[in-house]
Design goal:
Distance between the termini: 32 Å
Shape: globular
Number of domains: 2
Strand order of the largest sheet: 7-11-8-9-10
Order of helices and strands: EEHEEHHHHEHHEHEEEEE
Strand content: 15-25%
Largest sheet: 5 strands, antiparallel
Helix content: 10-25%
Number of strands: 11
Structural class: alpha+beta
Length: 292
């Protein structure tokens, strides 16, 4: 799993729209973390969003519920440099995960999903961007078929904004980046507030609808819902033709439930914490959007 224990690099797995923060450990902490990853059991997580553990780079193995590793990372300089709201949530969730019995299992794979269509896998890379339909009747919860099943085969390269707009770019798209508001390496592209992310999304071609829950499908395009974890991250949900909502937390699998495992019928009332601020709804017409 680790080729060297000298310089361990971890991602703080937050399952959000913004790329996960990076934490680099010093020599002594790296040696301890190396041993933990090599010997610890890997536990599942019942939540859909928020802190999901420490993801080892480049292997991608995620260790959660391990108090020893938590203590190493939570006191590291890189972690302490993160926004207070992020640190508070991660520390709280780390303690919760460490306090519950571990059910050893492979790293969380998410809900069972059909395998992508064979023969289409290379298209997910070669044909990107892959743009979904403008017809709202074509927007349905079907991860193995949606955009050729590419949200499964290229799961880690596409986030909630990709999925909500139904455009696969393999770039972990950020609101505003496609329209040139920021560069590819800017983290974040814009401040994580409702107003800033809304303006960035509008520059990409999304249209503000308001804060009232849409109750009928639009004539063209589909509705998306914007949520903000203040000063930390954004998240988007997508209304499907069934009038329920689905989403893709970060680089994890597509879901049609919230943190409580409940179907999402009203984004303003569902549990997508720590994305505590519901900003409202926008209209996404895939063929008219510019994502990157």
């Amino acid at each position: 799993m680790l080729s060297t224990c000298a310089n361990v690099t971890l991602q703080v797995a937050l399952l959000g729209g913004v790329p996960d923060p990076i934490v680099r450990l010093n020599e002594s902490s790296s040696a301890a973390a190396c041993s933990l990853f090599q010997n610890a059991s890997f536990c599942g997580n019942s939540k859909v969003l928020g802190f999901d553990g420490w993801r080892l780079l480049p292997s991608g193995a995620t260790l959660r519920g391990n108090a020893e590793l938590d203590a190493l990372v939570l006191t590291s300089p890189d972690f302490l440099a993160l926004p207070e709201s992020t640190r508070h949530h991660v520390a709280s969730e780390a303690a919760r995960l460490a306090s519950i019995p571990c059910n050893p299992q492979p790293d969380l794979a998410g809900p069972a999903q059909d395998a992508p269509i064979e023969g289409e896998k290379n298209k997910c890379k070669e044909d990107a961007p892959i743009v979904g339909p403008d017809d709202p009747q074509g927007v349905t919860y079907a991860p193995s078929a949606d955009d050729l099943g590419c949200f499964q085969t290229e799961q880690g390269e596409n986030n909630c904004f990709n999925y909500a707009t139904d455009i696969l770019t393999n770039t972990f798209a950020q609101p505003g980046r496609g329209s040139g508001v920021c560069g590819h390496e800017d983290r974040p592209c814009v401040p994580n507030t409702c107003a800033d992310v809304r303006r960035a999304a509008e520059s990409d071609g999304l249209v503000w609808v308001g804060t009232t829950l849409p109750t009928v499908l639009p004539s063209a395009g589909h509705y998306v819902s914007l949520h903000i974890w203040p000063d930390s991250n954004f998240h988007w949900l997508r209304q499907d033709r069934e009038m329920t909502w689905s989403h893709k937390p970060g680089g994890s699998p597509v879901r049609d439930v919230d943190n409580n495992g409940r179907p999402i019928t009203d984004p303003a009332k569902c549990d997508v914490s720590p994305w505590s601020e519901h900003c409202g709804y926008m209209l996404a017409k895939p063929s008219a959007l510019t994502l990157y």
